[in-house]
Design brief:
Layout: H1 3-17, H2 25-34, H3 40-52, E1 62-63, E2 70-71, H4 76-86, E3 90-94, E4 101-106, H5 107-116, H6 123-131, E5 139-141, H7 146-156, E6 160-164, E7 170-175, H8 176-184, E8 199-201, E9 207-210, H9 215-222, H10 234-242, E10 251-254, E11 257-264, E12 269-276
Parallel strand pairs: 2-3, 5-6
Antiparallel strand pairs: 1-7, 3-4, 6-7, 8-9, 9-12, 10-11, 11-12
Helix pairs in contact: 1-2, 1-3, 2-3
């Protein structure tokens, strides 16, 4: 990105974050694009940032039932096993139940502990060791605006927050990466395999499509009109229809096609099978 373009884009972001000129932001973006000040992909990112202002934490968080966490009484070795098994760099720690999150443990802190201390000690001694590395959790309401949450993550230099429901119970968990993925899509690391094509034609003529496939691309490929002002992808479109993230096996009949969920997790639809529906032949009289 050229220096001038970068300055223009950053200026837009600052106006969005301050929530100024909210009624004119889209006009600013369109004008800047038409004048060649920002590129098409940059426009897409800015529009996604705008949509953060219409989302709440509970829409993108990991729900309570899927939170990976450890009990405060757990042995250090058990917590290490949890982190290795699930590949998380941070996990919440609770006392009695998940409604009582007492802290966050970082994998790097456990590593330092393992290097400096002998873990072959009593459970009371291990609990005392853990108490020294448990960090204070960041609690947020699950109705918090996602754009505001992004700014809070940045200002606090924090990467994980515990979302609470209206009664003060644990509703879910939100990470900095979850928010970023709303803007730039799935974030992969060096251990991830290359992504297959978003639209794949199967031997039986059906389509296998990724949940991140844009509605416009799907329309061009299938000649279906799935326009929506609130979402850009087919996964988001089906989630909006269902009122939640669809589960494996859920099916939707739309404009002569059946969309069946083949793979989904707690936050998003990953793969969908699309079949052309054929009306049965009329019965002979």
């Amino acid at each position: 990105m050229e220096e001038g373009n970068e300055g223009t884009l950053w200026s837009m972001f600052k106006r969005i974050f301050r929530r100024e000129d909210s009624s004119k932001i889209e006009d600013i973006i369109k004008a800047a694009s038409e004048e060649g000040e920002i590129r098409k992909e940059e426009v897409s990112i800015v529009l996604k940032v705008l949509r953060l202002g219409r989302k709440q934490v509970h829409e993108i968080m990991i729900p309570r039932t899927d939170i990976v966490c450890a009990e405060i009484e757990s042995r250090v070795e058990d917590i290490v096993d949890i982190i290795i098994t699930h590949g998380h760099s941070r996990i919440p720690v609770f006392k009695d139940n998940k409604d009582n999150i007492v802290g966050i443990i970082h994998a790097k802190d456990l590593l330092r502990l393992a290097l400096k201390q002998s873990l072959d000690c009593s459970s009371d001694a291990q609990e005392a060791l853990l108490a020294n590395i448990i960090r204070e959790p960041l609690f947020i309401p699950d109705t918090k605006n996602v754009m505001e949450m992004l700014l809070e993550f940045q200002s606090r230099k924090n990467h994980l927050a515990i979302a609470l429901d209206e009664y003060g119970g644990t509703s879910g968990l939100l990470t900095f990466e979850d928010v970023l993925e709303e803007i730039v899509g799935d974030i992969e690391d060096e251990y991830d395999f290359p992504q297959p094509d978003d639209i794949q034609v199967q031997a039986d003529g059906n389509l296998l499509i990724s949940g991140r496939t844009e509605l416009k691309e799907l329309q061009e490929h299938m000649h279906v009109n799935l326009e929506n002002d609130q979402v850009d992808t087919i996964g988001g479109y089906l989630s909006q229809l269902a009122g939640r993230v669809p589960r494996k096996g859920d099916a939707f009949d739309i404009q002569g096609h059946r969309f069946t969920i083949l793979e989904a997790d707690q936050k998003k639809v990953r793969w969908i099978r699309v079949q052309l529906l054929v009306d049965p032949a009329p019965l002979e009289q």
